[in-house]
């Protein structure tokens, strides 16, 4: 029998010396993603449309709309007279206007909101002041035909109100 350079002794092969396995390598910390947060202080007074791409906390006063791609927090000393559009909205201060949250809106106990809230997830903590309407999109609604929209500010008639109260929710 020819030996093609292999040692025919029955020794265990030496382990390969390549990259360390996941279990043997020292734990490496996960890379830190730097989150930018802007704080607009209590002496700030702003009129107009504010837009930003980083999270921000408002402790001052804004008269105008806020259009934002990230999180907006209205601090306990903050106030907004205008609508807010953002991914996540948290209210500890005062807002007079509509809140449009792409992900969520949360009104803490110190928060005061006079306006409508539109978001898939909404939380209003006990003690908060809220005067307005809440609209949460139904994920199943996209497959159903939409009902005709009532113009803003037009109240329901007594008959429409009774019909809605008497109707059973879908699936019941």
Task: Provide an overview of this structure.
The chain is built from 1 helix and 16 strands. It has one helix at 158-166, and strands at 37-40, 45-47, 50-52, 55-58, 61-63, 66-68, 71-74, 79-81, 84-91, 94-96, 99-107, 112-114, 117-118, 121-124, 129-131, 134-135. The termini are far apart. The model is unreliable at 1-24 and 142-147 (pLDDT under 50). The strands form 2 sheets. Strands 1, 3, 4, 6, 7, 9, 11, 13, 14 and 16 form a 10-stranded parallel sheet that branches. Strands 2-5-8-10-12-15 form a 6-stranded parallel sheet, with no helix packed on it. It is mainly beta and 172 residues long.
Task: Chart the SSEs and their pairings.
Layout: E1 37-40, E2 45-47, E3 50-52, E4 55-58, E5 61-63, E6 66-68, E7 71-74, E8 79-81, E9 84-91, E10 94-96, E11 99-107, E12 112-114, E13 117-118, E14 121-124, E15 129-131, E16 134-135, H1 158-166
Parallel strand pairs: 1-4, 2-5, 3-6, 4-7, 5-8, 6-9, 7-9, 8-10, 9-11, 10-12, 11-13, 11-14, 12-15, 13-16
